[in-house]
Specification:
With about 575 residues, the protein is mainly alpha-helical. Helix content is about 65%, strand content about 5%.
């Protein structure tokens, strides 16, 4: 996919759509960028800087058409907790440390691109992505409650934020709550009936105008406050080497969150629109975006789920919308910074709250619950992890849960036995004691690779099927179509099993063995134990090979083929 193919829409109508979406997105995102700067301990204007050069850098070098790369609460929280112990927030030294953290994060992302670590996104299933976005929605929504109620909330942890809001409800500033409720109700109502209307832009304009006309500040409604606007000055900050070493750990934490959260977000929205994502190309875009942040007085940028959802709801389908945002940021920095200081914080919080509501995928969760209760539990666990442990830890938990689910499937795979149905045809049935394919014959399928964790299940089930068969077993055919790998531990167990069964006069035959399995069987000595003549490429050949040696396989091979309903 070429640069301009990624960057530009395919036709003029799509370009106009994305440009208009970029304007609507800017109306929602610019105030939010100011809020992220406050979380990061940076001057408000630094938040706007994250929506300028980093946005352009990712649009040029990234691959995802939907991902918005700018300031994000997760990374802002991570580095602020460390940097606040090294310098006074918003001071020149603090800004320098933030710039170096972004540069170190960029270097780590570049190394990840060189070694093609984008595959880490493969460990995030669709179920996990739904749970991830739901958790982010709850987390962001709770974080906005303080500003919407006019209650000071100091903690960055969701559960503590809930506790602080609950214990200070009596201190609610009613004018602030009224404004918040009006904005939320209006946006959600029009989102349902007129979703294309730029309600967030209208809320910002009316909020600023009302604040000036009715003197909101004098009535106790908190405002964003003055901005020291102007275009960023490009330079690198001088940092002493010991400080660089101190920043390596926080940069590594930011790196983990950036690579995981960006991949999760780009995957989630690519799924919504049927797009394909090149995670390795996105890593390059993220590296360049963080380098751009480092030289422009900004801080670590990330693929933001909240802002990506905002752009998506605004109708953006390409990076042209993000470039439109960057152009509007320039206009704001040059001409409109004075007016933004009058924007009530509760209006900003209410806008972000409506976006958080949209992230809670109730419909998809219900669909998952109906189709797969186990995966529904996984989605809920992911959402709860994000809410309780934070986005950065929640992502790692989500990856771990996905891997555990995969390992569980491999550890306890589906196993089946070909057994006759009422019509006399052989069909696959879940393996259980007492099943046989024909007198003296069992055809058994093991539904996963054989490795150290499931070798005991394989051996125990083979023995149980043989010991409980209605007739003495002479041939045991293993349908190995799902087995592509045999490790050392499993090889030893299979050898011991085959030797023991051979001593009991039972012949073990492998059918549908692929070349990778055959190579492992040769290497681990299984072939030498059972004999090369007892390894077949197809199940029909295995049955034909036993013809005349077993009552269940006697007769014309075409009759065996008629009776076999191959396992898929």
């Amino acid at each position: 996919m070429g640069l301009f193919t990624r960057l530009m829409p395919t036709n003029r109508a799509a370009a106009l759509r994305d440009a208009v979406a970029g304007v609507a997105f800017a109306s929602m995102d610019i105030p939010q960028l100011l809020g992220y700067a406050r979380i990061a301990g940076m001057p408000p204007v630094a938040g706007l800087y994250t929506g300028l050069l980093p946005i352009v850098a990712f649009a040029l070098f990234g691959a995802s058409p939907n991902l918005v790369v700018a300031a994000d609460s997760a990374t802002a929280t991570i580095f602020a907790s460390k940097l606040s112990m090294m310098a006074v927030p918003s001071s020149a030294q603090y800004i320098a440390l933030a710039g170096m953290t972004a540069l170190l994060t960029a270097l780590m992302l570049l190394i990840a691109r060189i070694f093609r670590l984008g595959f880490l996104a493969d460990f995030l299933s669709r179920t996990v992505l739904v749970g991830f976005l739901t958790g982010v929605g709850v987390q962001v929504g709770v974080a906005m409650l303080g500003d919407m109620l006019g209650i000071p909330v100091a903690s960055r942890l969701t559960l503590r934020q809930i506790a602080q809001v609950a214990t200070h409800l009596s201190s609610t500033h009613w004018p602030t709550l009224a404004i918040s409720a009006l904005v939320v109700a209006t946006i959600l109502l029009f989102k349902r009936y007129q979703p294309k209307w730029p309600l967030a832009l209208a809320a910002v304009v009316m909020g600023v105008g009302s604040s000036v006309i009715w003197n909101f500040a004098g009535r106790g409604v908190a405002l964003i406050g003055p901005l020291h606007a102007g275009l960023p000055r490009l330079h690198l900050f001088a940092i002493h080497w010991p400080q660089v070493l101190d920043l390596m750990q926080v940069a590594a934490s930011c790196f983990v969150v950036v690579i995981a959260q960006s991949a999760a977000t780009s995957r989630a929205f690519a799924e919504r629109h049927g797009d394909r994502v090149d995670e390795d190309a996105d890593l390059l875009g993220l590296a360049v975006a963080n380098a751009a942040a480092a030289i422009s007085g900004a801080f670590v940028v990330n693929g933001s789920p909240t802002q990506t959802a905002m752009a998506d709801q605004a109708g953006a389908r390409s990076q042209l919308a993000q470039l439109t945002l960057a152009a509007i940021v320039v206009v704001v920095l040059l001409f409109l910074g004075h007016w933004l200081q009058y924007l009530p914080r509760c209006v900003l919080a209410a806008i972000v709250f409506t976006i958080a509501v949209g992230l809670v995928a109730v419909g998809q969760l219900n669909e998952i619950r109906r189709e797969s209760p186990g995966e529904f539990a996984l989605a809920l666990a992911t959402a709860v992890s994000v809410v309780i442990a934070g986005v950065e830890n929640g992502i790692l938990v989500a990856m771990g849960l996905s891997l555990l689910r995969h390992v569980r499937h491999s550890y306890r795979p589906h196993t089946m036995v070909l057994a006759p149905n009422d019509d006399g045809r052989w069909e696959p049935r879940p393996s259980q004691a007492g099943l046989e394919t024909a007198p003296g014959l069992i055809i058994y399928r093991f539904g996963a690779d054989l490795f150290y964790a499931n070798e005991h299940q394989f051996v125990d089930e083979v023995r149980r099927l043989i010991d409980t068969a209605p007739d003495p077993v002479h041939r045991f055919i293993i349908d190995a179509s799902a087995i592509t790998d045999l490790d050392y531990s499993a090889g030893r167990s299979v050898n011991a099993l085959c030797q023991d069964l051979a001593g009991r006069g039972i012949e073990i035959i492998f059918a549908r063995a692929n070349r990778y399995l055959r190579a492992d069987m040769d290497r681990h000595g299984v072939t030498a134990v059972i004999g090369k003549a007892n390894i077949y490429a197809t199940l029909h050949e295995a049955l034909a090979g036993t013809r005349g040696r077993d009552p269940g396989a006697r007769g014309d091979p075409r009759e065996a083929r008629r009776r076999v309903d191959d396992l898929s």
